[in-house]
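hi!! sorry for the late reply, been swamped w classes. u asked for the two structures so here they r. pasted raw, havent cleaned anything up. first the sequence of the first protein and right below it the tokens
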Amino acid sequence: MAKISKRMQAARELAPKEAVTLDEAIVALLTQPAAKFDESVDIAVKLGVDPKHAEQMVRASISLPHGTGKTVRVAVFARGPKAEEAEKAGADVVGADDLVEKVQAGFMDFDRVVATPDMMAQVGKLGRVLGPRGLMPNPKLGTVTMDVAKTVAAVKSGQIEVRTDKSGVVHAPVGRRSFDATQLIENARHLIDELNRLKPASSKGRYMQNMTVSSTMGAGVAVDTGSL
């Protein structure tokens, strides 16, 4: 059995023993001892959906009011004027067939991918590489688009992609430990509002079943979903 560090022991002692409101959970999380780096603050929420059914898959791009605090590297597959737009908007890597070849050869120095529709035939060749990493551009997420400048700007400013996993759980970052409580609360509330808006019509019963807020090296704090 792995030994629990003194910092984790202290974090667990400070965590509420029962589920609390979302605001209280975030405030409680910030009282835990911090790590030596700026930890990510994340939410995990179990939704009352069955991801085996396509119509119950919850997936979307969400722009958080205060961003995530993380520098996001964006790759854009585009040609000509659209490639120039992407570069001006701050894309980290821009290319067409040359970038496809580069990724096929093992280049993966990016966190998000955007592509223009005319490039998808080529980008489709990268499905085995980008798909398992959740990086494949998708029209439903707005990452297959002609408006590359707007999309790159949104991703750079803190837009996140959320999707249910096989168990119907959504994991999402809502900021960093260096954020103040108000910023984290506003980001978290916005995330929850968007997840509620995305509730599939075929989802029956309680939609938000359980939720936990945690930091990278901290103890999880349970949220009373009835209070949301």
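now the second protein. again sequence first, tokens right under
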Amino acid sequence: MARLIKIFVFTLISFLLISCSSSDKNTLKVGTISGPETQLMEVAKKVAKDKYGLDVKIIEFTDYIEPNSALNDGSIDANMFQHQPFLDQQIKDRHYKLITVGKTFVYPMGIYSQKIKDLQKIPMNAIVAIPNDPSNEGRALLLLQKAGLIRISESAGLYATPANIIENQKRLNFKELDAAQLARSLPDVDIALINTNYAMSSGLSPKKDAIFREGSDSPYANIIVVRENEVNDPRIQMLVKSIQSPEVMEEAKKIFKEEAIAAWQSN
């Protein structure tokens, strides 16, 4: 009897392993941060199932560290929550073997003003409010450079500070503030550089109110990330196509009121 029980248990385990293995070939676990991007992934999940027969299981996280850790150790197969500069820093600090396989959306930083409508008419010695955290400060200065107002030393990379400015013909004066305070600073400065989330929460529209903003070529586009050794997995390609689909585009328009820019499309 004991021998028959052992044979039954062994057979059952083997069957379950085979079933799981077979199922896993059609399944991907994708990490997201709870919130709007999880809503987008819910739409991509439906697209993946309907168009490619791919089952996407969404794993929600509440912080920005765990999704890359979980991807690196194999707990999930892909994640969608970060931009390239953040991933690069994570790889540098933690030696992850992760790689980008596609872009999603840019939530653009914009230049706003209550005093001018044309950056070409910005006065000499204008006061410019920028975020005071390293990542967003560099992002703001790169946007000012793209707008033609300053020039930054190439060696500064994505983490430039005012000290890295090598050309400032308008002699702009920089006021470094917490990112959440920038919209409130508009009455007291000539221009302010504000992230989409803080702009929208203050009643500003990047599309309508910004006098200059990032485009689809921004290095701060959110990305789809996988392990390096799985970059050619056909399931990953299906996932990317599902995320970069018209259905997800439509959902992004609803959630972000057309303020999100599809980074995989040209300007």
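hope this helps!! also noticed smth abt the second:
The radius of gyration is 23 Å.
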